[in-house]
Design brief:
Helix content: 25-40%
Number of strands: 13
Shape: globular
Strand content: 25-35%
């Protein structure tokens, strides 16, 4: 039962129940900069509570770290954000991405005291409808594997589990790969990176690549004088694409560390997963890549970012 019954009395029941009448007194509006501190606190507490209940480490060390991420997203191009508010109280927020042809549900968090009130369902539906209205009918989300209820909510909202991911971290891997050179990406590399992503995944992440290059987090791997792989960052919020696993391994091995809680390795890519284990990386948790329109086999290899 929702602890905020006096606030959510018109919208009670299970969070994954799609049949209830909408609460007309709950307002969904765009996030403003003045909301970020509250949204960050809500995000930290929500992620902390659910991880603790399942005996997993929290994704953020404190509320300030969560606030910093949301502040960056609000400033970043091609991100949009909305809050659910009732009687002047922010109950949750959603951040969505338009950085590629495939829209992303990047962050969805609900105040622990307002959970089981249908807030998450309302925000998710609003975010999905907004993305569809912007031409992003295909959408992705990365779901925490131990959180069964979010899995059910996303499935009922049209998402299909398409890839099991292993969140991995550890010390930097110091391995050299003959005939492959890794270097920082420049603006002139963007076209080749986007073409490679389209070849591998059927779509590119143009805005994400451009933003990573501008911030200096993107890298490319070259083989025989051409780009055969790239990454926007080796860590939780960066993705990687390559023609072969050797390209991804070279990119991972070139990193000085793994940003955030780690890197998301597709568990079904047995060769890459085993290589990570053999080189000292450990699995922190399992996650699920979900897609409203899963595509067929890729023409290459990749790892996704948590911010779809």
């Amino acid at each position: 039962m929702c602890p905020l019954k006096e606030i959510c009395e018109h919208d009670t029941g299970d969070v994954a129940d799609d049949t209830r009448q909408k609460d007309s007194t709950m307002e969904l509006r765009p996030v403003q900069m003045k909301d970020i501190q509250t949204c960050g606190k809500v995000m930290y507490e929500a992620f902390r509570d659910i991880s603790r209940r399942h005996n997993f480490p929290p994704d953020f060390p404190d509320a300030a770290a969560a606030e910093g991420l949301l502040r960056d997203l609000l400033h970043a191009p091609a991100f949009d954000a909305f809050v659910a508010e009732k009687e002047g109280r922010i109950l949750g927020s959603i951040f969505v991405s338009r950085r590629s042809q495939v829209g992303g549900i990047s962050v969805l968090t609900i105040d622990p005291k307002a959970q089981n009130c249908g807030v998450g369902r309302r925000l998710l539906q609003h975010g999905m409808e907004f993305l569809a209205g912007q031409g992003h009918r295909r959408q992705q989300i990365v779901q925490v594997g131990y959180h069964n209820r979010s899995l059910c909510l996303y499935a009922k909202s049209g998402f299909i589990a398409s890839e099991l991911l292993s969140n991995m971290t550890g010390r930097p891997i110091r391995v050299n790969f003959p005939f492959r050179t890794v270097r920082r990406a420049s603006e002139s590399d963007a076209r080749a990176c986007n073409a490679l992503c389209r070849k591998v995944q059927g779509f590119d992440r143009e805005h994400e690549v451009a933003y990573a290059i501008a911030r200096g987090t993107a890298a490319v791997v070259e083989s025989n004088g051409r780009i055969t792989g790239y990454t926007t960052g080796v860590g939780f919020v960066g993705h990687g694409v390559g023609e072969t696993n050797e390209d991804l391994k070279a990119l991972i091995a070139s990193a000085d560390g793994f940003t955030g809680p780690g890197i998301l390795i597709p568990t079904g890519n047995g060769e890459l997963f085993r290589w990570c284990l053999e080189n000292g990386l450990r699995v922190v948790q399992q996650m699920t890549l979900m897609d409203t329109q899963p595509s067929g086999p890729t023409n290459g290899v990749y790892w996704p970012a948590v911010l779809s």
